Amino acid sequence: MKEEVHQLAKENVQDIITIRRHLHAHPELSYQEYKTAAYVAEQLKAIDVTPTEGVADTGLTALIEGKNPTKKVVALRADMDALPIAEANDVPYKSKHEGIMHACGHDVHTSSLLGTARILKKLSDQFEGTVKLIFQPGEEKNPGGASLMIKAGVLEQPKPSAILGQHVMPLIPAGKVGFRPGMYMASADEIYITIKGKGGHGAAPELTIDPVLIASHVVVALQQVISRNASPKTPTVLTFGKVEANGATNIIPQEVKLAGTFRAMDEEWREKAHGIIINMVQSLSKSMGGDCDIEIDKGYPYLENDPSLTAIARAAAEEYLGKENVIDLDLTMGAEDFAYYTHKMPACFYRLGTRNEEKGITSYVHTPTFDIDEDALQVGSGMMAWLTLDQLGK
Known about the structure:
By secondary structure, this protein is of the alpha/beta class.
């Protein structure tokens, strides 16, 4: 059967490349994936798989039943949304939507899962159980499409016993994949702060309450949350990437806005840190004569791969690709809404290598020049099919 999966993945790859290029050229932002979802539905219907559309508005699901379909259910997930990034690649499939780009590889995830669906549909008389395909919206934006899909009942009727997801990784060469059991990715919260002061002339600071100065102290002081409150044994990141003052060389503004992200890998510490951040910002602002508003938009939880499921999946990947093409992954402070699934059932989230230095494909995700070696699509679709068959009992 392994050779049959390899052969089907090879036969399908040109069609999957075409699908991926269509998706790449027509990206849609989070929770706006209406045309993408309709296109995915068309592709499923073309292989006689009936989708359930409109799940969480722009998501969809589908079932591929083998023999004895109630024996076991395995779910496979792909995300469909793009990012607000202007593409800089000069390729035939360049984004046709100004300022929107599949810069995180969700076009790869979606097209690859459609390739997996083709393989599993072809082999449906050779396995027992059911495969649940999940095409979800909004991975890139809170509250996370995965949470909305779960609320919509995607993990029920039928209820999967396990879920698999894959994600591109431009640091890994195409042809290889990576796994990590246990804790893998961080939780992610967005922090929005408005420091309020009293604006005025830059030459008369004594008549003002300078929110720029207060904001500067706030940014520096908040690093104590990491250096003096977080355990050195607990990975934590606090970063502010946006500062808006809107003053001038001689104008002290009325307020300053800050926006940042907080990442952690411990839910108890995460909650405690929120309180420390809020208290520090409020106290410091008032001590310097100003005031503040602060909002912490709680995002995705940490992602934890089920050790047993991941060990089984890794062994199957080695069987399919060879041990030399399966690597260990390091912890990352990146975040993924697949984490919601990992807190509901045994889950395995692994990485698909997409890098090819000879072809000049080296850019990281979330950049205007991100692209993939499309040979990865054959690996991605075939291996996910193989992992699924391994779970169902090939």
